[in-house]
């Protein structure tokens, strides 16, 4: 009898421990499964300001708000994104160089404190200075400059004319090479420039990537009536700038011999970018009226991501992950060949 009681007293805690261990194992497997299923925001484009010093008629991120988040909120949001799997951040606008001190703080924080693989900036180039790059360029991997034409009349028609676009492009290219920052170009192809031959000057600039975007129409951003756009400089009417798929293809075929060319028609571009606005909300500009998630500061990254569509297949198709850290290729454009290479295979449409 005493032996049976002893055996029972010994077996009960052992069984309880086993059941507990099984429960912990199931719990860990559950959270591992949830973690594996979680969307990882690998590359995020953060539009921390909508303010801009240009009036590009096709702009799809217009100055609807003057809000700029506090430094604490920006850093909190960036930490959340890093914890969720962000590896690359791209700062855009608006024009990010209108806030040079804030931009420097963001680049330093993301590179030094968060340890991101890549920090990049998209700019119209007008406010970029050698002094800023010399002081803060150590925290920047890539600088992309928007350039839609090498003809000043075309730039004026688009709303981007300055009188020295090409000169400033070569300055920025040279500064980037000297400081080991990778240099790239972005071009929006529209009714004003789809017939332009940009090959010779692009080859001279020799960016490591040249992205050609088919002009994108976004309801709620660049869909204003022409008369409203004339009366309110913050509104955009992109309808007259839209081009057909055939016209975009003709532009890309004209430049297909440039190794650095990366064409992005609307079918690839729409919903393939993770866009974060000034309120730290994700945006979906993929089709129909623009959609906005709740702020990641309010609901977290995963819940906010679930409220928009991010086409991860299209993200991979357009080469969303590439050699985006400047250390990978040394001092950027000069070491990658870029547009100096020729004989690219025919584009697959």
Task: Briefly say what this structure is.
The protein is α/β, with parallel strands linked by helices and 349 residues long. It has helices at 2-37, 71-84, 100-113, 130-136, 152-158, 165-179, 199-205, 226-231, 245-254, 266-269, 296-299, 301-306, 312-317, 333-336; strands at residues 43-47, 88-92, 118-123, 142-146, 182-189, 209-214, 261-264, 274-276, 281-284, 291-295.
Count of DSSP-assigned helices? 14
Which stretches of 5+ consecutive residues score pLDDT under 50?
26-35, 227-232, 328-337, 341-349
Mind telling me the C-alpha Rg? 24 Å
Distance between the termini: 84 Å
Strands, helices and their partners?
Elements: H1 2-37, E1 43-47, H2 71-84, E2 88-92, H3 100-113, E3 118-123, H4 130-136, E4 142-146, H5 152-158, H6 165-179, E5 182-189, H7 199-205, E6 209-214, H8 226-231, H9 245-254, E7 261-264, H10 266-269, E8 274-276, E9 281-284, E10 291-295, H11 296-299, H12 301-306, H13 312-317, H14 333-336
Parallel strand pairs: 1-2, 1-8, 2-3, 3-4, 4-5, 5-6, 6-7
Antiparallel strand pairs: 8-9, 9-10
